[in-house]
Amino acid sequence: MFTYFLLTFTSIFTLVNPLGVIPVFLGYVEGAKNRDKAKIAGIASITTLICLITFAFSGRAIFEFFSISVNGLRVVGGILFFRNGYDMLQGKLTGSKKHSQEDAVAMGKAAAVSPLGIPMIAGPGSIAATIIHMNESPDAAHSAVIVGVLLLVSILTFVILVSSDRIMRFMGESGTKVFTRLMGLILMMIAVEFFFSGIAPYIKNIASTIN
Q: Which pTM was predicted?
C-alpha cells in the first residue's frame, strides 16, 4: 500500500508542479499583504483539491455527459499554458508592474480559481492522471489512498505558494529572473505538447472521415 501511495503521489505531484506556478502566482499577488497572499493561495489550493476530487469520482461521467474528452482539455490547457509561459518568458509576470494593495488582492482572488487553480495547478495532466488512477483502483482502500494523495498534494501546494516569497528571496533577484524565464520556456514546451497531443486525435478523425 505504501508503494502504491508513493507511486500515486509522485505522479500527481509532478504533474501539479506547484514550484512551476510560483512566478505566475507572485505576478498576480504583487503588492498584496502576506495574509492576503495566504488567502489567495488557499483559494487556489482548495480549487485544485475540489477539481481533482470531482474528476476522480465523476470525471468520466462529466466528460460523457457533455460529450467532451480529455483531449479537449489538453487543447484548451495548452493554449492557456502557452499564453502564461510567453508572459513569463517576457518578464511580464515577475512583478515589473506594481499594483495597489486593493488591485493586487482583487487580481489575485480573481486569478486564484482560474487560471491558477484551473488549469495551471489542476491541469489536463493531473486531471487525466487522477481519473486513470481512480478508474484503475482495485478496491475502496486504494481509492482512499488516492483521495489522501490529493489532499496531501493540495496542502503542499498551499505551503509552497505561501512560502513563494521566501523561495524567491533565497534564489535572489538574478536567480528569480532566470528561474521565471526558464519556467516560462518549460511551460511553453509543455503547452505545445499538451496542444498537439490533444489535437492529434481530432485531426486523425477528420482525415479518416475524408478518406
A: 0.73
